[in-house]
């Protein structure tokens, strides 16, 4: 960092500003976490220099003997951690991992069945602005209006009607456990491949806090930077019979050279996730998300589906008459970072949705427990209810920001020294 400061104080300043932002506020974005210094060290290493197209022992460049070791260790740790027959750590992101999984099992024009984006699915699950919706005939399933849980009867009906090549489960904003066995059963009925996009919850699986999709899925795709607490990136786990197809779909089909510094950092994260402390962490993440959801309900908001089994809760703000966009802006002013989010069957437009999504991965990494989350809920509620732009509202937001600083100082992110 000294070199950066000397050579490029402008960018060094940005890095320090971001560190201070993390230290001074509450991070409640469900898809973010605070990686360890060890992961950051691998990311900021000379492994970033190396071209290594191909796979260990089968590269298109010389000089790969050293980086091969990193990838082999990473693959072995990943397979062991998840009990998977094959792992590929090269995808640059979760979206790249998904592209590879589609490419391995379907051709453009084929039908895929996945969760509706408006109800919690991801862009790569069939959105018209994404390859998944443009190149594939994407059919969407939804949650039930009464329970806000996945409508498995509808999934089966749509599968029988459309005979998709791939059925996808896993979402971006779904707080409940997914019945992988039932998805497997439906996929088998129509001879489809089952792809579980575990981007959000793979870390909870690693920590043995929720059931694993690995025994049920043909392929599991994931990000490595959410609850899993690794570097920003993607990965694919699959059965041995699909290993060749998946590897070819990652490279050379959808990517060139892997980011070897990121692959090494993923290996570091896998080792961290295999420790007993990480299992405690994963369990605490869920307890914290549940405490937060409960706290927000006590403040008059509504947790979609009545709560959460995971690291995130989807909060309907209509009972308190605030939009998701207003809540996001007010929380930002109070040093609470979260995102606005549509709720299932949201009558409001996407840029002003009725809800927010909150998550506990980062705050739990800092060391917060349920009692802290009760305090977080009460500060968040104060912020969300403060009419920004009025003298009283702005004063309230300043007070909440100060209280947030005091709260996070008890369990600092990246403690000084
Ligand atoms: N799949 C799901 C379910 C996600 O939630 C996300 C990102 O949030 C992705 C895929 C894509 O990951 P990335 O942003 O790394 O491309």
TrEMBL record:
Source species taxonomy: Bacteria, Bacillati, Actinomycetota, Actinomycetes, Pseudonocardiales
Protein name as it appears in the record: Serine hydroxymethyltransferase
Source organism (scientific name): Pseudonocardia dioxanivorans (strain ATCC 55486 / DSM 44775 / JCM 13855 / CB1190)
Residue positions, PTM N6-(pyridoxal phosphate)lysine: 226
Major localization class: cytoplasm
Intracellular or extracellular location(s): Cytoplasm
Catalytic reaction list: (6R)-5,10-methylene-5,6,7,8-tetrahydrofolate + glycine + H2O = (6S)-5,6,7,8-tetrahydrofolate + L-serine
Keywords for the protein's UniProt record, in alphabetical order: Amino-acid biosynthesis, Cytoplasm, One-carbon metabolism, Pyridoxal phosphate, Transferase
One GO BP: tetrahydrofolate interconversion
HAMAP family associated with the record: SHMT
Subunit structure: Homodimer.
Enzyme class: transferase
CDD domains: SHMT
Methyltransferase among keywords: no
GO cellular component, one term: cytosol
EC number, as in UniProt: 2.1.2.1
Role this protein plays: Catalyzes the reversible interconversion of serine and glycine with tetrahydrofolate (THF) serving as the one-carbon carrier. This reaction serves as the major source of one-carbon groups required for the biosynthesis of purines, thymidylate, methionine, and other important biomolecules. Also exhibits THF-independent aldolase activity toward beta-hydroxyamino acids, producing glycine and aldehydes, via a retro-aldol mechanism. Thus, is able to catalyze the cleavage of L-allo-threonine.
NCBIfam families recorded: PRK00011.1
Pathway linked to the protein: One-carbon metabolism; tetrahydrofolate interconversion; Amino-acid biosynthesis; glycine biosynthesis; glycine from L-serine: step 1/1
Gene3D superfamilies: Aspartate Aminotransferase, domain 1, Type I PLP-dependent aspartate aminotransferase-like (Major domain)
Family: Belongs to the SHMT family.
